[in-house]
Each structure stands twice: as structure tokens, then as C-alpha cells.
């Protein structure tokens, strides 16, 4: 997939950007990619993994998870990864809520 190759190229930092600028650029690349590939769970998952590894902004990561769930509501790995992330951030009530919603809607998924 061309988008993934382009993102990987940008991750190699050919412009020699500082870490903050590089993160902003890669996040922008994922946002651009998701305009075309909105319903591709693999891209959402890659974007989530990248953001989790490069930022401590919990709200930004949660927002990305929420967008992913809205875009690909039948992708179980995103739900499980989201609940695991919330549990690791000690947001147990929200993680339990995600699991309960998942169980309640398992037949429609």
C-alpha cells in the first residue's frame, strides 16, 4: 500500500526534523491517509501504535481510539487495545464500560 510506504519514508525523517516536528508531520500523514482509507482498521491501528509510542498526551490517544471505533466499529482488536490502554492508564471504569459495550453488542459485530 503506497500510503504505508510513504508514512514509513517520513518516519525515517529525511528532512532531519526535531522529535516534536517529526511527530506532528507523521500524525498529519496518518490524518491524510485516513481521509482516503477511513474504513481500513490496519491504518487506524498503525496510527494508534505510533501515537502511543511517541506521545504522553492521553487525551490525544483516547481521541484517536474513539475516532477509530467510529470508523471501524467491527474491528475487535481496536476495542481490546483501547480497553487495555485505559486499564494501563488506571481508567478502569472506562475500560470496563468498553468491555460491557462490546459484550452487549457482540452479536452485531
Would you give an account of this structure?
The longest helix has 18 residues, at 19-36. Helix 2 packs antiparallel against helix 3. 16% of the residues are buried. The model has no long low-confidence stretch (mean pLDDT 94). It is built from six helices and no strands. By secondary structure, it is mainly α.
Secondary structure: elements and pairs:
Layout: H1 2-11, H2 19-36, H3 41-54, H4 58-71, H5 76-88, H6 92-104
Q: Report the structural category.
A: mainly alpha
Overall 3D geometry? flat
Rg value: 15 Å
Tell me the series of helices and strands, N- to C-terminal.
Answer: HHHHHH
- N-C termini distance: 26 Å
Number of helices: 6
> Uncertain segments of ≥5 residues (pLDDT<50)?
none
How would a textbook summarize the main sheet?
none
Number of strands: 0
**Overall average residue pLDDT:** 94
What level of helicity do the residues show? over 70%
The amount of beta strand, in percent, is under 5%
Can you give me a brief rundown of this structure?
By secondary structure, the protein is an all-alpha fold.
Key traits:
about 110 residues, about 0% strand, flat, mainly alpha
Amino acid at each position: 500500500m503506497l500510503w504505508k510506504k510513504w508514512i514509513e519514508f517520513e518516519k525515517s525523517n529525511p528532512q532531519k526534523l526535531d522529535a516534536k516536528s517529526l511527530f506532528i508531520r507523521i500524525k498529519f500523514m496518518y490524518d491524510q491517509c485516513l481521509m482516503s482509507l477511513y474504513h481500513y482498521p490496519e491504518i487506524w491501528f498503525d496510527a494508534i501504535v505510533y501515537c502511543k509510542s511517541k506521545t504522553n498526551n492521553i487525551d490525544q490517544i483516547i481521541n484517536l481510539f474513539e475516532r477509530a471505533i467510529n470508523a471501524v466499529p467491527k474491528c475487535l482488536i481496536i476495542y481490546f487495545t483501547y480497553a487495555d490502554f485505559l486499564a494501563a492508564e488506571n481508567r478502569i471504569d472506562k475500560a470496563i464500560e468498553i468491555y460491557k459495550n462490546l459484550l452487549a453488542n457482540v452479536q452485531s459485530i
